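Lab notebook page, bench 4
Experiment: in silico fold of construct C2
Operator: M.H.
Input chain length: 456 residues
Purpose: comparison with the prior construct
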Amino acid sequence: MARALIIGLTLLLAAPLIAKPLTAEQKLMIDAAVTKILKATEVPSASIAIVTDGKLDYAHAYGDQRLDGSPATTAARYPLASISKQFTVAAILLLVEEGKLSLDDKVAKYFPTLTGADTVTIRELLSHTSGYRDYWPQDFQFEAMTKPTTPEAIIDRWAKAPLDYTPGTKWQYSNTGYIIAGRIFEQVAKERLQSFEQKRLFKPLGMNVVLAATGLQSTDARGTTRYALGPVRPGPGESDGWVFAAGDLAMTPSELAKWNIARLNRAVLKPGSWQQQETNAAPADATLKYGLGVQLESVGQHPRIQHDGGFTSYLTNNRVYPADRAAITVFINAGFSNSQDAISDAIEAILFDDADETKEVRSVFNMLRTGQIDRSKFTDNGNFYFKEPVLVDYRTSLTSLGDPTRVERRGTKGLRGGLTIERYVFTFADRKLLCVLRAEPSTGRIEQFTLYPFTD
């Protein structure tokens, strides 16, 4: 759920706020939120890990992880999918630290026959600005993916095709770039990528990590899929060779929490390497800020380094808050719904008082459903608009809708005529409403709160 207020690197260096350890009440709130989301989305299970004050604070598993009714455990591993990319970046940055390669090396130095090899850099491969077409943009496995492959086969098919754009001019997610980067790493290191990661990253941090395609056991989470609103079914696994450096790792949320803590502590890598990963490399006109294998965002006053992962049968979300020394990790054993994001959002709102950007707008909506508003929250013009007949129409038309299933910000906050302007979409079972909110910047008093029928 994209609620990001895009930030610059300076915010990432903000004075520490330090998220306090969760209280027993907060943990119960988290358990209730996860249970509610799983029930609403029919996702079988979720597993979470939360870091506060730079330490693992809470880990819990919910639902049916193995589709056999056995209790869910925090020891069950899930594929990371694209969260794995930051480990590929870390391995490459270790080679940079050793002077064995440069992020500004051209691909031609290692693979001269690839399209645009003399112009594309390793940095562009890792920041999704290379122009190489993504070999797996679908949310399902296409036919070729049902059989094992090799990184070379992927490179030959997709990295020798025409580029989608001039390198460095656009941002477009590309797993292909990471397959190339992984092979460049192995050519320079003269070692398999995962072997190096085990030795230089996972072992020093005490992490238990396996390959998703070949290392999962019967005790680990079993993935599921769903076709439209049909029954939840056991889902396919990814065939060997198809994800490699773009997403080949599997672990528990608690193991990933060790990596998140390493990020907070600037461990394993040099501080400058962590900063390289967390520095925006996307073009100025891109719709997001993206470093090397991580997305740079903020929620409320909290800078956030995050990445999602998606396989056919699993979805993952990982968020790190450097200024707060906190992190949230959520894995689900389903390739459908947005439960992993919804759970992360719910935990975020519990962890940070100012993290729920929809809290105020939902509060006003609930007032209007009752026909009773707190007029001190409105300007003179706002109170003029909400005359009694207007309140009656709001109350009678909104009450029957019930509670919204989702409220999300659309776009960023603007300014017009001396008033801020924000837009939100309320989603109900059978319709959507657009909310337009205008307010005084200095006082926050509401000038306009109007709702309209809406369709995407």
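Observations: The first helix runs from residue 9 to 12. The mean pLDDT is 92.
Next step: discuss at group meeting.
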